[in-house]
Amino acid sequence: MKLKYIIPILIISLSTIGCSTDDNDTPIVDEIQNLVKIQEIKNSDHTIELYNKTGKFTTGYNNVTIRIKDNTNDSYFENLSISWMPVMKMPAMQHSCPKSAITKITDKKTLYEGSVIYQMTNTNGSGWSLTFEYTIDNEDYTATDTISVIQSEKQNVASFMGSDNKKYIVALIEPKAPIIGINDLIIGLYKMENMMSFPVVQDYRIMLDPRMPGMGNHSSPNNTDLSYDTTDNIYHGDLSLTMTGYWVLNLKLMDSDDSLLKGEDVTESNERSSLYLELEF
Amino acid sequence: MKKFFIIGISLFCSNILLSQENPFETRKDTTLLQETIVIAQRKLSNYRQEKTLSSIDAYLEKANKVTMIKRGNYAWEPSLNNMTSDRLNVTIDGMQIFGACTDKMDPITSYVDVSNLEQASINSGQEGTENGHCVGGGIDLQIAPSKFYNTGLKTNIDLGYETNGNYKIAGLDVEYSGNKFYLNTDAIFRKSDNYDAGNKEEILYSQFQKYNISLQGGYNLANNHILEANVIYDKATDVGYPALPMDVSLAEALITSVTHRYKNNSTTIKSLESKLYFNTITHIMDDSKRPDVPIRMDMPGWSDTYGFYSKSTLKEKKHHLLINLNGFYNRSLAEMTMFPNDPNQPDMFMYTWPDIRTLYTGLYINDNIVLNSKESISTTLRLGFHQNEIAKKEGVESLQIFRPDVSDSKNRFLLSFSGEYKLKKNEFDAVLGIGYGERAPSVSEGYGFFLFNSFDNYDYIGNPNLKNEKALECNAKVNFKFDALKLGITSSFFHISNYIIGEIDPNANSMTIGANGVRLYEALEHASIFDVYLNTGYNISKKVSFNSSIGYNYGMGSNKENLPLIRPLSYLAEINYNTQKFNAALQLEGNGNQSEYSSFYGEDETSAYTILNLNLGNIIHFKNNKLVFKYGIENILDANYSTYADWNNISRQGRNFYLNASYILF
Question: Which domain of life is it from (chain B) (predicted)?
Answer without folding.
Answer: Bacteria
